[in-house]
Design brief:
Layout (H helix, E strand, L loop, with lengths): L1 E9 L5 E8 L5 E5 L5 E7 L5 E3 L7 H6 L7 E3 L5 E2 L3 E4 L2 E4 L8 E2 L12 E5 L2 E8 L10 E9 L4 E10 L3 E2 L3 E3 L1 E2 L13 E4 L1 E7 L5 E7 L11 E2 H5 L4 H6 L3 E6 L5 E7 L5 E7 L3 E5 L7 E2 L5 E2 L5 E6 L14 E2 L4 E12 L1
Antiparallel strand pairs: 1-2, 2-3, 3-4, 4-5, 6-16, 7-10, 8-9, 11-12, 12-13, 13-14, 14-30, 15-29, 17-28, 18-21, 18-23, 19-20, 19-22, 22-25, 23-24, 24-30, 25-28, 26-27
The structure holds beta-D-glucopyranose.
Beta-D-glucopyranose binds next to strand 25 and strand 28.
Length: 346
């Protein structure tokens, strides 16, 4: 195993950015930036043993800055997904957040964790990125010390371990917003990929794209992914919730607890499979329904449905829905969550 660092240009403001490559003895590797703790590349073998980079990304920091609204590979925080009306109550006090997707708050606000430079250290086979989010940032109470540890194993499994501590009660929901295309990051739409999710219910979307609070059974709907289903089958389905999201843009309520396998994505063409395990209660699946057409790494064409984000996280708007698993972090307590992306091929 090796972790190496090299310069990755500079932000528009002139701050140098570093790219870290975590490579295993087989030559498979992942690349992570200290800017935004962004997952910039994941190169794993297909069924011919050829490496394919299956993670969408850009070649320069400026592109990440200009196109940040796609959240490519981003480490999303302080609170992933939507908070209705960009407000919540905590300890009897109202808190107003940045309404960056009016009227809601999305993915941490105008300048989320994906748009800051993180501190880094290399610890053995791992890259550890840390960031202190000051009290009041984007409207959140409490200074939050955040850490994410990236570890890439000899078995082509990438582990993300999230940790955070706040000096006041706050809301925390960290996730990775990597988009996957298991045929290669520039290989076109992902309609032929199959996806299964270990869930019997999903959170219904209201007209404001926040959950209504109702958990709907997946049985008899395009959301039944207990057996693998082609993504195009889902996004072409005639179902009011698919119309509301423009495809899949929903949170599945995962079964079980602790680190357990939650979803399996497979590309029949390349033979590559991604099995996602997580400690989180929810999995937001976003089939890039609104990803604008743009040029990605090496001139690749990205856009609508040319990748799928599998965002293991707390339920959207949980802070305003007492019946959802809590995303509140009490002062002095430690937030800990894990996501494991394990790559194999047939
Ligand atoms: C959300 C989408 C949003 C996208 C932005 C996803 O996580 O679920 O609704 O448009 O992020 O890139």
């Amino acid at each position: 195993m090796s972790v190496t660092a090299r310069p990755f240009g500079a932000t528009r403001e002139g701050t140098p950015v570093t790219l870290f490559r975590l490579e295993n003895p087989s030559g498979a590797y992942v690349q992570v930036l200290d800017y935004g703790a962004i997952l910039q590349a994941v190169a794993v073998p297909d069924r011919e043993g050829r490496l394919r980079d299956v993670c969408l990304g850009f070649d320069t920091p400026a592109e990440y800055q200009e196109k940040h609204e796609g959240y490519l590979g981003a480490l999303v925080g302080r609170c992933a997904n939507r908070i209705r009306g960009a407000r919540f109550q905590l300890g009897g006090r109202p808190h107003a957040l940045a309404a960056n997707q009016p009227p809601n708050h999305l993915h941490g606000g105008n300048r989320g964790f994906d748009q800051y430079l993180w501190d880094h250290r290399i610890e053995g086979d791992s890259l550890v990125l840390t960031r202190l989010s000051p009290a009041g940032e984007e409207g959140y109470p409490g200074a939050l010390q955040t850490q994410v540890r990236y570890t890439f194993g000899p078995d082509n499994a990438l582990l993300l371990e999230f940790q955070a501590v706040s000096d006041a009660d706050t809301v925390v929901n960290l996730t990775s917003h990597a988009y996957w295309n298991l045929n290669g990051h520039g290989a076109g739409d992902v309609g032929g990929h199959t996806l299964s999710i270990d869930a019997i219910a999903f959170t219904e979307l209201g007209e404001d794209n926040c959950p209504t609070g109702t958990l709907v059974s997946v049985v008899g709907t395009p959301f039944d992914l207990r057996s693998p289903r082609a993504l195009s089958d889902g996004w072409n389905a005639d179902h009011p919730q698919i119309r509301q999201g423009g495809g899949y843009d929903h949170n599945w309520a995962l079964r079980g607890s602790g680190l357990r396998e939650a979803a399996v994505l497979h590309a029949p063409e390349s033979g590559i499979t991604l099995a996602l395990s997580t400690t989180q209660p929810g999995l937001q699946v976003y089939t890039a329904n609104f990803l604008p057409e743009s040029t990605g790494k090496g001139g690749a064409v990205y856009g609508r449905r040319r990748g799928v984000a599998l965002e293991a996280q707390g339920f959207p708007n949980a802070v305003n829905q007492p019946e959802f698993p809590s995303t509140v972090l009490k002062a002095g307590e430690t937030y800990h969550q894990e996501i494991l992306f394990a790559f194999t091929h047939d």
